Amino acid sequence: MSRTSARSGSPFEAAIGFSRAVRVGSTIAVSGTAPVWPDGGVDPDPVVQARRCWEIMLAALEELGGTVDDVIRTRQYVVDPAYGDAVGAVHGEIFGDVRPASTMVVVAGLLDPRWKVEMELDAVLSA
């Protein structure tokens, strides 16, 4: 099977040695994605952060031939349980009809203290 990858331009991709997303056959895995803008900025609002994460991930998914309808699993990491409802509502806006398997986990912290959320997804392309 062929292997292709998508890169988002994150400085961590080269430094750590990862791709934003990888496709092998009909499976696409999108790496943990933080809510960073191209200029390195991070909005403090967890809802804006959630939307930014999904924007980055869905662009990588599309670059590798996938769509929202192909997503089978999502993972959302939040640093405060108080963000759960708002971040979950953004997930519902995007995946309400798709309803992938999903997990939301409260974590002690993320790599950058400005990040309130980080997310990842897996997809299997339709035949």
TrEMBL record:
Lineage, uppermost ranks: Bacteria, Bacillati, Actinomycetota, Actinomycetes, Propionibacteriales
InterPro entries, sorted: RutC-like_sf (IPR035959), YjgF/YER057c/UK114 (IPR006175)
Protein name: RidA family protein
